[in-house]
């Protein structure tokens, strides 16, 4: 596909030269290239409940082809690595779960996890189990057990303002207990106070697989950590090019478009982008 045609297929571009540089590298030196994709809201459309999410078969097939073509293809998700693999369903892809706290090696099937996290599993779970479950249900707040991360969702709550008030009370209590807090699109995560994020995950994979060109595709605040990491690796000379692709939505964070080199139109735009590689 000619360069100008591939650029237009991805939607509005704030820095189209970076996109073309990465696409050229993917054609000429594919094994030196890495592609990292968020899952929910990027590969899979956002749905009211996390368990209802589906990655279209077309997308899974595209990722399967690209995993054989490129140096590394990875799905970087807030879900556990095992759940991300279940959802995407491609064997040759690396899965970074829990926002980078764990890596599922496609060759061995083993999950690598930051050792410090194990000590915090029980305190996080104990904190959440002590919450008033009746009050949570009354306000439309649902719990998602991510092992050492516990997530509170309120997408679809009948009275979102009341749900937000409850979430803020829980956030304040969690901070007082020493936990880390992260907010996404209608979700609050209670985490161990251990450093991990999507930026840490992509940095680890880039160094491990010794790639020179990396692209990251994401739609939420957690993905901005990965954008920052790619650009830091580019500044230090580890990467020859770093491409940051934002996925637009009605709920996109204000910083996403400002931080992205390229914006694509929802998961469908991501699919069209994958076809150009």
The tally of strands reads 12
The CATH superfamily label of the largest domain reads HAD superfamily/HAD-like
Portion of residues within helices: 40-55%
Instruction: Give the helix/strand class.
Output: alpha/beta
- Named CATH topology of the largest domain: Rossmann fold
- Physical arrangement of strands within the biggest beta sheet: 5-4-3-2-1-10-11-12
- Average pLDDT level: 90
H/E element order: HHEHEHEEEHHEEHEEHEHEHEH
User: What proportion of the residues form beta strands (DSSP E)?
Assistant: 15-25%
Shape: globular
Alpha carbon gyration radius: 19 Å
Second rung of CATH, namely the architecture of the largest domain: 3-Layer(aba) Sandwich
Indicate how many domains the architecture comprises.
2
């Amino acid at each position: 596909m000619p360069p100008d045609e591939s650029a237009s297929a991805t939607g509005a571009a704030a820095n189209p030269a970076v996109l073309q540089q990465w696409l050229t590298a993917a054609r000429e030196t594919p094994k030196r290239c890495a592609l990292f994709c968020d899952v929910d809201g990027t590969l899979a459309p956002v749905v009211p409940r996390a368990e209802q999410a589906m990655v279209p078969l077309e997308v899974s097939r595209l990722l399967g082809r690209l995993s054989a073509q490129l140096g590394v293809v990875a799905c970087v998700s807030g879900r556990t690595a095992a759940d991300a693999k279940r959802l995407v369903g491609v064997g040759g892809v690396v899965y970074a779960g829990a926002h980078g706290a764990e890596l599922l090696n496609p060759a061995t099937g083993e999950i690598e996890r930051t050792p410090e996290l194990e000590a915090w599993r029980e305190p996080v779970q104990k904190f959440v189990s002590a919450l008033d479950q009746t009050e949570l249900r009354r306000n439309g707040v649902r719990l998602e057990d991510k092992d050492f991360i516990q997530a509170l969702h309120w997408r679809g709550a009948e009275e979102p303002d009341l749900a937000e008030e409850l979430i803020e009370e829980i956030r304040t209590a969690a901070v007082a207990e020493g936990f880390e807090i992260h907010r996404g699109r209608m979700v609050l995560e209670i985490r161990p106070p251990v450093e991990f994020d999507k930026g840490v995950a992509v940095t680890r994979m880039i160094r491990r697989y010794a790639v020179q060109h990396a692209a990251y595709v994401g739609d939420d605040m957690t993905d901005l950590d990965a954008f920052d990491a790619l650009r830091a690796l580019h500044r230090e000379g580890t990467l020859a090019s770093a491409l940051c692709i934002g996925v637009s939505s009605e709920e996109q964070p204000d910083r996403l478009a400002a931080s992205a080199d390229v914006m694509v139109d929802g998961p469908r735009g991501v699919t069209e982008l994958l076809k150009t590689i």
